[in-house]
Amino acid sequence: MNRSPLAPARFPDLPAVAGVDVRTARAGYKAWDRDDLTLALFRPGTSVAGVTTRSACPSPEVEWCRKALVLGTARALVVNAGNSNAFTGQRGREAVEAIAARVAGAIEALPSDVFVASTGVIGVPLPIDKAEAGIDAALATSGADWQAAAAAIATTDTFEKGASRRLSMGGHDVTLVGIAKGSGMIAPDMATMLAFVFTDAAVLPDALQAMLSRANAGSFSAITVDGDTSTSDTLLAFATGAAGNPTIESLDDNGAEPFAAALADLCRELALLVVRDGEGASKLIEVQVTGAVSDGSAHRVALSIANSPLVKTAIAGEDANWGRVVMAVGKAGEPAERDLLAIRFGATQVAREGSAVAGYDEAPVAAHLKGQEIEIGVDLGMGSGRATVWTCDLTHGYISINADYRS
Amino acid sequence: MNRSPLAPARFPDLPAVAGVDVRTARAGYKAWDRDDLTLALFRPGTSVAGVTTRSACPSPEVEWCRKALVLGTARALVVNAGNSNAFTGQRGREAVEAIAARVAGAIEALPSDVFVASTGVIGVPLPIDKAEAGIDAALATSGADWQAAAAAIATTDTFEKGASRRLSMGGHDVTLVGIAKGSGMIAPDMATMLAFVFTDAAVLPDALQAMLSRANAGSFSAITVDGDTSTSDTLLAFATGAAGNPTIESLDDNGAEPFAAALADLCRELALLVVRDGEGASKLIEVQVTGAVSDGSAHRVALSIANSPLVKTAIAGEDANWGRVVMAVGKAGEPAERDLLAIRFGATQVAREGSAVAGYDEAPVAAHLKGQEIEIGVDLGMGSGRATVWTCDLTHGYISINADYRS
User: Fold this and answer.
1) CB-based contact (8 Å) between B276 and chain A?
2) Residue B371's CB: how many other CB atoms inside 10 A?
3) Can you tell me which residues the record assigns to a coiled coil (chains A, B) (predicted)?
4) Contacts of B113 (CB under 8 A, 6+ apart)
């Protein structure tokens, strides 16, 4: 698979996170020549928070994480790539339990402190023997770097996705590092992929959960590649506390706000990397909706536009086909008035008050559409609700990847 | 554009409908060498019923028809192809009024007895001079055949779509003929295309409306090509009464039931023809959902499957990827239990009770997927709700048509 044309030039330099020890190993879930099991070990006292798919058919990993999240503490994370273990019945549940037990036994932790996520084909039980051998191999290695971990959690991704933030909290340097994988079955009914954030900040689980949920709303829940929501979507944040900052116990605490902002910013960067690696993507599209009756309504209208095959193919064709944007607004099922609607591509207003802007300058629109980063602005003229959603265009590449794939 | 591989071998022989006089003419809405204006004249006393798009941004034609439908009578229908006149503000409204006035003046009818539908590019006001010249030309010709009319209402369609039914009502032969056009921006928030049914039956408007709404639910509202709902969707039925049957005044009348069944059957045939001409379609997919908590819930689950790009590309690739069907059930937002779910392709059960059927015979599944008509069956195991929805696969053809199109 060719590297996405929207990929960053290189993987960033990511710092170590105190209290986190990451390793990768080759479990061999598929016949490929790469590491496909990632193991992260956390120091005792690590807080955890998470958001998982809203799919009614979640994987056993998602169910396991939901239960474990209630306790708020973590000692390890195992990520399997190449097999999602979703829709595998009792055998799938047994595989997750076996993984948690294996790691818990090795590090003298509780199984409920071991988080598990898997990604890949649906319907094939994860082979327990391969998982256990992979865990043993990972335990026997020394730490891997973040790029290796970002590569080991990937499936159809064409580049590794990682980002970091640093800030000072109560005189202590705090680090956040995140890695994520895409890149199909991406729709924002929460996260629709796997993403993990690691920080050495001291944050209690409830506060971490509140900040993560807020960060998710403006990042992983605001992206879509194909409108298809995965059964395995998982976003987890681990806070080891090794930085020694005064522990964040609630959102009102000193330092909570800048930490939450750094977390939200990091999540948005990771989410945009996922869109940049959307299957077949050649352009990144930002849809800004304003003037809706509420932020929620704006979000749904933005998603209707971002998920429309006709809008996405028009952008692929560099076609300023704003009529398709009107169509997508109209079908969203949200309050809208045709004769109040205004639409722009980039900075150029192309439609206003229910019809085309007479004689608008097509040159800047054409130039904007030839770029790799496209902005579609829609003002509904109804209220003050606003939302931004990111997606990519729909190209022959998406069809090739998904019609030629054999399960 | 090549004729769809799913097209019928030929256009059917369609009988004349007493009381209906159809003509076509060249208005020249686009630079093409074909008729693009259709005019149907009805004898006085013709009843009319209709269903229009639920888009919040409907075309002025749709708004005109909605108002005129309240009166229940029709004397003429004008269909313009190549320009939808949608999102054109006051100038678009004036074009519709001018068309109605021109025809009304020529046949001594009320403007509100003239129905108007347009299809094509969004955002360009329909040129009134071309419309008026086209109407005059149509009035000066003699009647066209149904295939000519079906061709004149088409846009990106690759074949003409028509069907007929005959029945006896109170000793009188009754005829129904329908024509329709697709083939992109097809999603079932009613009809998402233009379809017209003509009959010589005597049916009062309210009864006709009730029967048409019911027919629509199982036909045009049960198809999707790309999940994109048009701003111009219009289904109209005209009943001239020339057959001389005892007038159907309500659904309880003698003859109402067989007529309603024939109408529903005709609408379904037309709707399936629209799917068979879905942009880039190579396979017709029937999604049958059973065991839902209600018929409405089954319908929404079926649409979630039928609109999933990953399901549609899997079928294009002849891949029995039932994991993607699980995904689409899971994201539908409807009551579902992973461990009760059963899935089949054709007659072969591939998954049951939340996991794959161990060792199911893959040969009949592969053979079924190589065919042109694919059946996906999903039983949710929750209740007795059921629904059937039709769609087509998602291929490179769809991308080519829609990314290469310039507005």
Assistant:
1) no
2) 12
3) none
4) B68, B71, B73, B74, B75, B76, B104
Q: Encoding tokens for residue A377?
A: 């602005």
Beta-bridged to residue A38, according to DSSP, are A24, A79
For residue B69, report the phi and psi dihedrals to the nearest 5 degrees: -65, -25
Binding site per annotation, positions of B for substrate = 155, 181, 192, 279, 402, 407
Give A 84-103 residues with CB within 8 A of chain B: 84, 86-92
The answer for B 308-347 residues in CB contact with A (under 8 A) is: 308-310, 313-314, 316-317, 319-324, 326-339, 341
Question: What distance in Å separates residue A73's CA from the closest CA in chain B?
Answer: 28
**Which member of B87, B123, B323 has the closest CB to residue A122?**
B323
Return the closest-CA partner of residue B178 out of B63, B249, B264, B80. Answer: B264
* Domains of chain B, start order: 20-276 (3.60.70.12), 284-404 (3.10.20.340)
Task: Report phi then psi at A316, rounded to 5.
Answer: -55, -35
The DSSP secondary structure of B235-284, one letter per residue, reads EEEEE--TT-PPPB-STTSTTHHHHHHHHHHHHHHHHHHHHHTSTT---E
Maximal C-alpha separation, chain A: 72
Task: Give dist(CA B366, CA A150) in Å, integer.
Answer: 36
CA-to-CA distance for B362 and B165, rounded, in angstroms? 40
Kindly give the pairing relationship between strand B385-392 and strand B284-292.
antiparallel
Cα–Cα distance between A262 and B205 in angstroms, integer?
A: 63
What length does chain A have? 407
Tens of pLDDT along chain B (407 residues)? 678 888 889 999 999 999 999 999 999 999 899 999 999 999 999 998 888 877 777 889 989 999 999 999 999 999 999 998 888 888 999 999 999 999 999 999 999 999 999 988 888 899 999 999 999 999 999 888 999 999 999 887 888 988 898 989 888 999 988 888 876 665 433 334 677 788 888 888 888 888 888 877 777 777 766 666 667 777 778 888 888 898 999 888 888 888 888 888 888 888 888 888 888 889 999 999 999 999 999 989 998 999 888 899 999 999 888 888 988 898 888 988 888 999 999 999 999 988 888 888 889 999 999 999 999 999 999 999 999 988 899 988 888 877 765 54
Q: Is B333 helix (H, G, I), strand (E, B) or coil?
A: coil
